[in-house]
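To assess whether the prediction recovers the assembly geometry, we first specified each molecular entity separately, as shown.
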Amino acid sequence: MHNQSPEMKDCIEACLDCYQACLGTASGHCLETGGKHTEPQHFRLMLACAEICRTAAHFMLLGSAHHKHVCRECAEICDECATDCERIGDMQDCVEACRRCAES
Amino acid sequence: MHNQSPEMKDCIEACLDCYQACLGTASGHCLETGGKHTEPQHFRLMLACAEICRTAAHFMLLGSAHHKHVCRECAEICDECATDCERIGDMQDCVEACRRCAES
Amino acid sequence: MHNQSPEMKDCIEACLDCYQACLGTASGHCLETGGKHTEPQHFRLMLACAEICRTAAHFMLLGSAHHKHVCRECAEICDECATDCERIGDMQDCVEACRRCAES
Amino acid sequence: MHNQSPEMKDCIEACLDCYQACLGTASGHCLETGGKHTEPQHFRLMLACAEICRTAAHFMLLGSAHHKHVCRECAEICDECATDCERIGDMQDCVEACRRCAES
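The predicted structure of the complete assembly is given in tokenized form:
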């Protein structure tokens, strides 16, 4: 891991934190709570956000030059996911992880 | 899987074929052959291509509206990977899977 | 991909088919239908099955000697997922993909 | 993420740290250094270790009961990867992340 700047390391951390928050919240909170939390559009967005965060981290760890495009897409999905988690409520951890990730 | 058009199904197949070709060729051929096949830039591109194909298929299976952006990025990386595999040679299966995937 | 026997190729195919069936059905059918289809235990099993199938395919494509253990775990989860999809009903494609994968 | 004990959280962290160490070292150090670092058996083990760590974390985040088997397999591969990284040398970060992950 000789090729990672401190900024890159922080960004990888933010992506993996957001991945954990989205997947952990979707499975441990949304599925248990049901109702608005399992609306198809919302739940899919949680899973899509988890996946793109995981992939963005993977691209940065690989050191691929394409990580910029993947990270840009990641920030967009994180942003949308944060807004949707706020709308439904009761998922502040996930909102914050998504916002930090979108900004990093 | 009630939400997939035939075009979507074909595109998922092309992505998973390309994922298989890239990862299988990288591990089973490039690592064994060495030399130009394990040039960092080339080998990373093979792994990045495998990962984005896997992720693009995931987004289409989820039915996420963001699959369009992920597929566009996927097509770009596939295209670059096909060109690089052609330059190094002896990886025609991988070239073809990448081209099919980039066009789908 | 010079290192794959025909049996291995079939097994990779079965795993990726099952991954597609589980993730596509979970997102495209279970989330839309709700009720028993989004019971936490069932839905988690669908996502876990998708993930282990994806990973088992990855290990076989890598040509890792550990693929045997991963495939054994994969067969167990597929079997459990097939039984659970049958219990809930209306997911015959997924049942069949899981059974084929468990047996391969 | 209401369902994770502190032990589980630590184990997820250890897995994701090990995933980062293995993939980051493989791409940023082994590919650049070549020689013994790109021996097929070694490099495949690094990639297999990264993948199983990623999957073990995924199973714990999902809250799947099968995480125990996946974590056991993960510990075995991490242990083997640590030993192999020590044999080749110059990858102490990766050795330590693998050992911590195997023990967690």
